[in-house]
Amino acid sequence: MKIAVLGAGAWGTALAISLAARHEVHLWTRNPAQFTEMSEERTNRRYLPGLPFPDAQQIELKLEQALDQADLALVVVPTAGFRQVVRQMAELGAKMPLVWACKGFEAGTAKLPHQVVAEELGDKAQCGALSGPSFALEVARGLPTALTLASRDESFAHVMALELHSPRLRVYSSPDVVGVEVGGAVKNVMAIAAGISDGMGYGYNARAALITRGLAEIGRLGVAMGGRPETFMGLTGAGDLILTCTGDLSRNRTVGLRLAQGQTLDTILAELGHIAEGVHSAREVLRLAESMNVEMPITQAVCQVLFEGMPPGKAVEALLNREPKAE
Ligand SMILES: NC(=O)c1ccc[n+]([C@@H]2O[C@H](COP(=O)([O-])OP(=O)(O)OC[C@H]3O[C@@H](n4cnc5c(N)ncnc54)[C@H](O)[C@@H]3O)[C@@H](O)[C@H]2O)c1
Ligand SMILES: O=P(O)(O)OC[C@H](O)CO
Asked: ∠220-224-228 over CA atoms, to 5°?
């Protein structure tokens, strides 16, 4: 299969490296300097340094070249750039199936990626979301990882999961696009909270409590939006939440850790050099939750720290001082 991987950040590059073992992979970057560097050095020095590209992996600067005769477009840009890339594909008349790997709500509209696709390509497009517990560095190193490919078209999810599947990158299928997308987006907000708690030195017990209550928040919102309860106990729910809240490779967790050390959000984001989707999704998640009467106290606390200048310690204290109630 020819796969056009659109977006050459950490995750697009890692997926390209992994998939190139079995497929013809064309990794697209919009950045001419990055194109030249990746073509000459056969590695992505800026986003995934030290991981060599397989010989078969091709690099593209022209989107139409990447998409030419592709059997699949795998879009791996941050959620903020997703609509633009899908629109560019539509303008080029690209008709191949589309899978996206971004984890977030679109800032300003609170839309999930599948809603963006429906708006840009119509609701007949053959498409799905790829998500699950997966640090780019580990996938690029060939360490075992399990993902889920969700599509409302169950047979597409099944067939595409089989195509992408390999022993080191296991891909399961699911019909629950909403559940998979909500799990992937909201766990980033919870990871910021876990980072804050750990950074404040509140300990493992507090972190376990945050993860568990965070999972309850994710499930409440996800079910209210039409997701299936069981999805939140799977790879893209509990699995990704645990990874991102506990793994120090997480950019979202890092944001929380550094906020707890007293760094400003602007400084943290400038130094991170990668997207931390939780920062962009948090407000949208809270807005959606409020509009649907879903209680999300951890998300609310994260928003207060990120956008209202509340000291991280005070936000955690406020969570701890909530009225006790039945679990
Ligand atoms: N890094 C991971 O471990 C990981 C794992 C799973 C999912 N994800 C998700 O994948 C998405 C991308 O994350 P990442 O880690 O690759 O981000 P990153 O910050 O490492 O890189 C983002 C890349 O996207 C490019 N980009 C941004 N807007 C674009 C646009 N409009 N058109 C073309 N290119 C554009 C940037 O130039 C950059 O190369 C995020 O939603 C993230 O949550 C990341
Ligand atoms: O580094 P993060 O926090 O963006 O998380 C990366 C992946 O989403 C983990 O599954």
From this structure: 80
pLDDT tens for each residue of 292-309: 999 999 999 999 999 999
Both 250 and 106 in one domain: the answer is no
Whether residues 147 and 80 share a domain: the answer is yes
Q: 327 pLDDT exceeds 90?
A: no
- Rounded to the nearest 10°, the torsion over CA 207, 209, 213, 215 is 60
Q: Among this protein's residues, is 95 annotated catalytic? A: no
Q: Can you give the CATH number for the domain in which 97 is found?
A: 3.40.50.720
Nearest-atom number in ligand 1 for the CA of 135 is 3
Ligand in closest contact with the CA of 280: 1
Q: How far is the CA of 180 from the centre of ligand 2 (A)?
A: 14
Quick check: 194 pLDDT over 90? Answer: yes
pLDDT exceeding 70 applies to what percent of the chain?
A: 100
260: domain CATH number is 1.10.1040.10
- Tell which of 150, 175, 200 closes a domain: 175
How is residue 288 written in tokens? 């959606």
Which pLDDT tens digit goes with each residue over 19-70?
999 999 999 999 999 999 999 999 999 999 999 999 989 999 999 999 999 9
Q: Examine the domain organization and report whether 136 and 152 are in the same domain.
A: yes
DSSP codes joined into one string, 260-299: HTT--HHHHHHHH-S--HHHHHHHHHHHHHHHTT---HHH
Question: Would the CB of 113 count as within 6 Å of ligand 1?
Answer: no
For the chain, what's the residue count? 327
Binding site residue list for sn-glycerol 3-phosphate: 103, 132, 134, 187, 240, 250-252
How far is it, in rounded angstroms, from Cα 151 to Cα 22?
A: 22
Best substitution site from 135, 246, 248 to test ligand 2's pocket, by max atoms within 8 Å of Cβ?
Answer: 135
Q: Are residues 9 and 63 in the same domain?
A: yes
Catalytic residue among 2, 95, 111, 187: 187
CB of 131 sitting under 6 A from ligand 2: no
